[in-house]
Specification:
The complex is a heterodimer. By secondary structure, chain A is α/β, with parallel strands linked by helices. In chain A, about 35% of the residues lie in helices and about 30% in strands. Helices cover about 25% and strands about 35% of the residues of chain B. Chain B has five helices and 14 strands. The two termini of chain B are about 15 Å apart. The chains are: A alpha/beta, B alpha/beta. At the A-B interface, helix 2 of A face helix 1, strand 8, strand 10 and helix 5 of B. Chain A: Keywords: Amino-acid biosynthesis, Cytoplasm, Histidine biosynthesis, Lyase. Chain A: Its EC number is 4.3.2.10.
C-alpha cells in the first residue's frame, strides 16, 4: 500500500536554513546539508527546499547546494525558488533534484506549468499555493511573493479556482499552504484541505500548522492528503520523525517505518 | 567497471551519486562503442518513452545493448525501454525483457503512482537478496510492466505490476533505487554483486 509521506520543509536563505512565523521574523535554524542528512536518516520520506528570497529578488536559486544535497541524500527532494523558465528548471534538475516547485512565477505566467510539464513530465512539476483565509468575505485567496512580508500580495485567484487551473495546465502535485496556520502549530486547515481534495486528482500535500503528532493523523484521516509538510515542529525538535511514524502506524495511517 | 548510459534525456547525477555512496565510481558514457568494455551497465531514464527510444536508436544504443553480454539494468523508464513495447507513444522498445508496458490503471487512486510503496518477492534471485517483507521503495511512474514469468518482485497500486524484472543478463527496476534510502542501497549492491 502506498505510504502517506512525511515531508520536512527547509526554507533556505543565504545558504542556511531559516524559519519564520506566518512568513516573517526569520531565524537561522542550521546548515542545509546537516539538516537534510539528519532528516533523511531519521526516516523523512521526502525533503522540500524553498529558497525563499529568490522569487522576491527576481533571481534563480543558487544551484550549488542542490548538487551537494543530491550527492549526500538518498531520498527524493524537491526544490523551489525563482524558477521562471524551462531553462531554469533544467539547471535545477540536472544537479539531481527530483522535482521542482513553482509558486509566484506560475501566477505571473501560468503557461509555465504547461511548458515544464511538456519538457520534463508531469511527475517533476509541483505547484505550491499560498492561500489566506479572508474572514470578511469567507474566501480563501491566493497570495504571491510570500518570501518577504514587504512584497507579499493578494492575487486575483481564489484558491479553488487556482487549484483547478494548475491541474488543467499539467501540475503533477499540489502543495497547499494555509498562511493563517503557518508556524503557529494549531493544526492543519482540515476544512480547506478536505474541500480542495475533492477537486484535486493529483497528489495533494498539506502545509502549514502542524503542532502535535495528532495533527498529522487528523490531516491524513480527515482530509485524505497524500503527504504532510512541516517545518518548525521538526526544526525545534518538538516532534521526532521516527516517533511520528510509529504514532501514525499505531493509528492505522500507512507509512514507511 | 560500471557504465551509466547517457542518452541525454535522463538525470544521470542521482544514479551516479548513489553508486558513489556505495564506494564505486561509475563512468558516464555517451558512445555505444564503449559499452562492451564495461563489466556492468545501467540504463537510467526519465521523460517520455517515444523520445527516449528515438534517441537510443538514433545513437545506436539498440544494437550495442542487444550485443552486450554482462549485467545491464534499466531504472524506471530505462526498465520499460528494455521490454518489448510500451503504450506510452505506442513504440517498439528494445525487446530484451519479454512483456508489454501499459498505462497503470489506478482506479480511484491519484495518478501518477508517486511515493513509497511495499514490495513482494515472487521469484528469488541474486537481485532480491536481503529484501524484507516491510521494505518500501520510491516510485514515480504512470506506465508499468504487467507481471509475467520474468517478474522477480511485484508491487501494487490499483493493479499489480512488475517492480523488478530480469531475463538473462538484463534486469529492470521500476522504482528509483537511487532514491530509496537503505533498501535502495541494498538493491544497488545486489546489482553490483550479481554474477551471471
Amino acid at each position: 500500500m502506498l505510504s502517506k509521506r512525511i515531508i520536512p520543509c527547509l526554507d533556505v536563505k543565504n545558504g542556511q536554513v531559516v524559519k519564520g512565523v506566518k512568513f516573517k521574523q526569520h531565524e537561522i535554524v542550521g546548515e542545509i546539508l546537516e539538516l537534510a542528512a539528519l532528516y533523511s536518516q531519521a526516516g523523512a520520506d521526502e525533503l522540500v527546499f524553498y529558497e525563499i528570497s529568490a522569487s522576491v529578488e527576481k533571481r534563480l536559486l543558487d544551484v550549488n547546494w542542490v548538487r551537494d544535497i543530491a550527492r549526500h541524500i538518498d531520498i527524493p527532494f524537491c526544490v523551489a525558488g525563482g524558477i521562471k523558465s524551462v531553462a531554469d528548471a533544467a539547471k535545477v534538475l540536472e544537479q539531481g533534484a527530483d522535482k521542482i516547485s513553482i509558486n509566484s512565477p506560475a501566477i505571473a505566467r501560468p503557461e509555465l506549468i504547461k511548458e515544464l510539464h511538456d519538457e520534463f513530465g508531469k511527475q517533476c512539476v509541483v505547484v505550491g499555493i499560498d492561500s489566506f483565509f479572508d474572514a470578511n468575505t469567507g474566501e480563501y485567496l491566493v497570495y504571491q511573493l510570500t518570501g518577504d512580508p514587504n512584497s507579499a500580495s493578494q492575487t486575483r485567484y481564489k484558491a479553488s479556482e487556482w487549484v483547478q487551473r494548475v491541474q488543467e495546465l499539467g501540475a503533477g502535485e499540489i502543495v497547499l499552504n494555509c498562511m493563517n496556520q503557518d508556524g503557529v502549530r494549531k493544526g492543519y486547515d482540515i476544512e480547506q484541505l478536505s474541500n480542495i481534495r475533492k477537486q484535486c486528482d493529483v497528489p495533494l500535500i498539506a502545509s502549514g500548522g502542524a503542532g502535535v503528532m495528532q495533527d498529522f493523523v487528523d490531516v491524513f484521516q480527515q482530509a485524505d492528503v497524500d503527504g504532510a509538510l512541516a517545518a518548525s515542529v521538526f526544526h525545534k525538535q518538538l516532534i521526532e520523525i521516527d516517533a511520528l511514524k510509529q504514532y501514525l502506524a499505531a493509528n492505522k495511517v500507512p507509512c514507511r517505518l | 567497471m560500471i557504465a551509466i548510459i547517457n542518452t541525454g534525456c535522463a538525470n544521470i547525477n542521482s544514479v551516479r551519486f548513489a553508486f558513489e555512496r556505495l564506494g564505486v565510481n561509475p563512468e558516464v558514457i555517451r558512445d555505444p562503442a564503449q559499452l562492451k568494455q564495461f563489466d556492468r551497465a545501467v540504463l537510467p531514464g526519465v521523460g517520455h518513452a517515444s523520445v527516449a527510444m528515438k534517441r537510443l536508436r538514433d545513437q545506436g544504443w539498440d544494437t550495442a545493448i542487444a550485443e552486450y553480454q554482462n549485467p545491464l539494468m534499466g531504472i524506471c523508464l530505462g526498465m520499460q525501454l528494455l521490454c518489448d513495447e510500451t503504450e506510452e507513444g505506442n513504440v517498439q522498445c528494445l525487446g530484451q525483457i519479454p512483456g508489454k508496458v501499459s498505462y497503470l490503471e489506478t482506479g480511484q487512486l491519484t495518478s501518477p503512482h508517486m511515493g513509497w510503496n511495499t514490495l513482494s518477492v515472487c521469484n528469488a534471485h541474486p537481485l532480491t537478496q536481503g529484501l524484507n517483507p516491510d521494505d518500501q521503495v520510491y516510485f514515480v511512474h504512470s506506465f508499468a510492466h504487467a507481471s509475467n514469468a520474468n517478474t522477480l518482485v511485484e508491487s501494487e497500486y490499483g493493479t499489480r505490476f512488475s517492480a523488478v524484472v530480469a531475463k538473462d543478463n538484463y534486469a529492470g527496476m521500476q522504482f528509483h533505487p537511487e532514491k530509496s534510502a537503505k533498501v535502495g542501497a541494498t538493491l544497488l549492491n545486489n546489482f553490483l554483486n550479481w554474477q551471471l
